[in-house]
Amino acid sequence: MSVSDYRIKGETGEWEVVIGLEVHAQITTNAKLFSGAATAFGAEPNTQVSLVDAAMPGMLPVPNRECIRQAVRTGMAIEAQINKWSRFDRKNYFYADLPQGYQISQLYHPLVGEGAITVEADEKAGIPAPKVIGVERIHVEQDAGKLMHDQHPTMSYVDLNRSGVALMEIVSKPDMRSPAEAGAYVRKLRAILRYVGSCDGNMEEGSMRADVNVSVRKPGDEFGTRTETKNVNSVRFVMAVIEGEAKRQVELIESGGTVVQETRLYDPDRGETRSMRSKEDAHDYRYFPDPDLLPLELDDAFLAECRDSLPELPDAKRARYLAAGISAYNADVLTAEVEAARWFDTLLDAGAKPVAAANWVTSELFGALNRMGRDISDSPVSPEHAAELLSLVADGTISGTIAKAVFEKMLESGDGAAEIVERDGLKQTSDTGAIEAEIAKILAANADKVEQYRGGKEALFGFFVGQTMKAMQGKANPQVVNELLKKALG
Fold first, then answer.
1. Do residues 89 and 108 touch, judged by C-beta distance below 8 A?
2. Which residues pair with 24 in a beta bridge?
3. Does the domain spanning 432-489 belong to CATH 3.40.50.1820?
4. Less CB within 10 Å around the terminal CB: N or C of the chain?
C-alpha cells in the first residue's frame, strides 16, 4: 500500500483525503510575548495578568527576545527559511476573552518561511516509505484568554492567564493523505520542538494543539472545500477527526449536499465533529500592521547564536544510531522522546556497547519502567549503573539470567550492579572442576537419558544444560557448561 492509497469507500467509489494542520505550540519561556507576566500552567485564574495583557489604556507591547529566539531556532530545526525582516499585524475580532479586541499575529510577513518535516516509514501504520511534508510558515502570535462556562449558573467567567501567552503557529502544506501520516507528522513535530526546547509538547495541558483542515476529492481531482476543526489536543484525536470528518464529507457530497467552509469542534465523547461557525475570510479580520510595534530585524550574529545553540536533532541522532548497528525499530523508539535519547547517549558515554545497550533499554528497562508507571527521567537505575550491568554481562562476570535478577535488585535499591553482584555472591563461575563434578552427578542420576542422547536424541542436550545450571544455581558460565557437557556426553 503506497502512502496515498488511504481511501474512503463511498457509494460512488473511492475518495482521497487531503489534510493540512495548523499546530499552535506554546513557546517555552518564563514570560509572555509582549509582557513580563508569568505563564505557569494551572495557576489560579487571573493571577498571571499584567496591565498589558488586560489591555489597560496606554499600555504598549514590548517583544520578548527569548520568544523570537525560540521561534527562529524551531525554524532552523526544520531547515526553513528565516526571514531577517518580519512584522506584526493586528487581527481584529471581538470576543469576551480577547481584552484588546484584536490579536497580535503575523499574516503578511512571518518570522519563518518554508521548511519541511520528514516522517519515517511505518509499515504497520500504512506509511511504507519516508514522506516529506512541507511547512508553509511559522509565525509568532499571542494567545487569547479562556471563557469558563461551568462556574456560575447564568454567567460565564473570564480567565486571562493565557492572554498574551506566546505561541508559534506552525502551518503545514496540504501534503498529508491519511490519518496515519497526520499522526506521524504531529509526533515528529512534537519531538523536534522538545529536542530544541522551544515547546514542552504537553498536549494535555494545551501547550500544543492542532487545528485540523480536512477536505475530500476523487483521486486526481481539484482540492475540495475544507473544514477546520479547532483545538484538537492529542495525536489520537487528530487522527479520529480526520477519519470522521472525511467520512462525513463523503456522505454529505454523495447525498447531494455541499461541504461548507466552516470551523468545527471535535467532541471526543461522541467521536464526532460539529459545526461551530462559518469560516470567515481573512479580510473580515481587517488585518493591518500593528502601529505599536516596529518590524523585527534580525542580524547575522543573532542568527548564528540561534544556529549554534541547536542540539543534535532526531533525524541526525537516528542516523548515528543506525550507523552504530542499532536496528531501525530501536533507533525509532530511542529517538522518539528527547529524555530517552539523552539517557541512552549517557549510557553510551559510560562505555556501553550500542547494539546490546539498545536491545536492553528498549526491552528490559522500558518494560520495567512501564510496569512501575514511571518514565525514563524518573528511572531508579542511572545510565552509569546500567553501563556497569551491561559490562558485567559482556565480560562474562554474570550470565544473562543473573543479569535479570541483578537488574530487579537495582530497581528496588538503586544500588550499582557490581556492588549487588559482589554482595550477593552472584559472580559466574568458570571453575571447570566444580562444573565437571556437577555434570558427573547429573549424568549418573540420568543414565537412561544419557543413553537416549547417545542414541541420537540430541534435543536432550538442553535438559542436561538446564540441570547443570540449576545445580550451579545459575552461576556457571553457559559457554563452559556447553563445552564440558559435549565432552562428557561424548
1. yes
2. 169, 209
3. no
4. C
